[in-house]
Design brief:
With 157 residues, the chain is mainly beta. It has one domain: Hypothetical Protein Pfu-838710-001 (Beta Barrel). 10% of the residues lie in helices and 45% in strands. It contains two helices and nine strands; from the N terminus they run βββββαββββα. It has helices spanning 70-79, 144-148, and strands at residues 3-11, 24-32, 37-44, 47-54, 60-67, 86-95, 98-105, 113-118, 132-135. An eight-stranded antiparallel β-barrel has the order 1-5-4-3-2-6-7-8. The radius of gyration is 15 Å and the shape is globular.
Length: 157
Amino acid sequence: MAVEIERKFLVVSDEWRAMADAGRDLRQGYVAHGGHASVRVRLSADGAWLTVKSARAGLVRDEFEYAIPAADAEDMLDRLCVDTLIRKTRYRVPHDGKVWEVDVFAGAAEGLVLAEVEMRSIDERFDLPDWVGDEVTSDPRFRNSAIALMRGFEAAV
């Protein structure tokens, strides 16, 4: 079973940009979300994926991700995820032995910038970069599925 352990933070400055890669544009949507799991479709220039994630239990959740044909992802995004589309650019930013993923949202969520870091264990210690602020891991407003539905994150941007 695949398990994801990650923490999520608001980004409070642009200092991360000096260390970031070129970024990649992502388009994603939700075929289903709520209850025990969500099913996400994601498309970028370098591939497409279908991801199933369990509901969050603290920092840990089950995650299953599968590569799918880009044409299938495009079709699902256009026909099955119309009301739940997210557009963002994801940057990979190294810091203190970890690789952070910084998401800069576009479209309806423009202005929102989040940073995520994956961990090997719940109690793993790491240094926070100066460019991150409040932790929002447990705040349901900052889950991508909630952002897709525009459920209240605006007040925190």
